[in-house]
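Deliverable D2.4 — example input (structure tokens):
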């Protein structure tokens, strides 16, 4: 009975190709006066519907002088009406000028948020982009602090590690340390990183949910550096984090990426 799994794989690859070209719809909610100078913030939604309101409130309270536009990718179709209702009733009083949301055709994992980054890079050109996760609490100075550390050739993340021979052979990186691995949540980078098709087309399907490992590898292999972001972030709702079930797969993928057979070759 192999034809059905094979068909599903083909369908998924077809959808991924369409997303690569920016063929997805979004809905916009306008709270202020959006401008080309607004800071781009991207976030994926999946299993924490109660957290969206916090994110909206916190972004609206940022001390950055420019506006902020939030780009959401919803991987949980069952919660989409909840998210729409939250976005409809939100009233901004500060820096949040707009929110945009996409409903996924299926759960693509958190790598899906980078389809947004690619589409924005094609439309707006190069420029800073901040990525957050919905299980992170952050200060009202977070955006301005991240922007002050922006370097277009560096992916600068708060979740930063110096790696050894294996995935679990690692230590938290301090400012100035060598950084070999970052998590995208709590990161600032240039959105033009995602204009390279290979970021989306060369990632092995078996490891599709491990976008943190792939991003760290891809960036350094294509001429970027990784750095430590000096901001204050606190994790919440740890029980909802999928990383608890991915330890073996992460170790396996890390070893694959360190082997002589590069997926980018």
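Example output (designed residues):
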């Amino acid at each position: 009975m192999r034809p059905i799994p094979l068909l599903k794989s083909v369908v998924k690859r077809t959808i991924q190709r369409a997303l690569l070209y920016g063929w997805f719809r979004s809905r916009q909610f306008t709270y202020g006066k959006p401008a080309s100078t607004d800071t781009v913030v991207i976030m994926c939604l999946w299993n924490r519907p109660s957290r969206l309101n916090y994110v909206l409130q916190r972004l609206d309270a940022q001390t950055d002088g420019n506006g902020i536009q939030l780009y959401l990718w919803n991987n949980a179709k069952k919660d989409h009406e909840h998210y729409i209702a939250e976005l409809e009733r939100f009233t901004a009083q500060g820096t949040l000028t707009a929110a945009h949301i996409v409903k996924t055709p299926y759960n693509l994992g958190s790598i899906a948020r980078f389809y947004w980054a690619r589409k924005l890079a094609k439309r707006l050109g190069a420029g800073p982009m901040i990525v957050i996760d919905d299980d992170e609490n952050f200060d009202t100075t977070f955006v301005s602090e991240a922007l002050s550390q922006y370097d277009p050739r560096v992916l600068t993340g708060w979740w930063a590690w110096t790696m050894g021979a294996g995935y679990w052979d690692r230590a938290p990186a301090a400012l100035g340390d060598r950084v070999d691995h970052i998590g995208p949540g709590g990161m600032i980078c240039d959105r033009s990183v995602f204009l390279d098709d290979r970021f989306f087309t060369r990632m092995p399907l078996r490891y599709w949910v491990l976008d943190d490992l792939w991003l760290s590898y891809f960036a350094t292999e294509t001429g970027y550096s990784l750095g430590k972001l000096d901001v204050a972030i606190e994790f919440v709702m740890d029980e909802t984090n999928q990383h608890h079930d991915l330890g073996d797969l992460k170790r396996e993928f890390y070893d694959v990426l360190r082997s002589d057979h590069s997926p980018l070759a």
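The chain has a mean pLDDT of 92.
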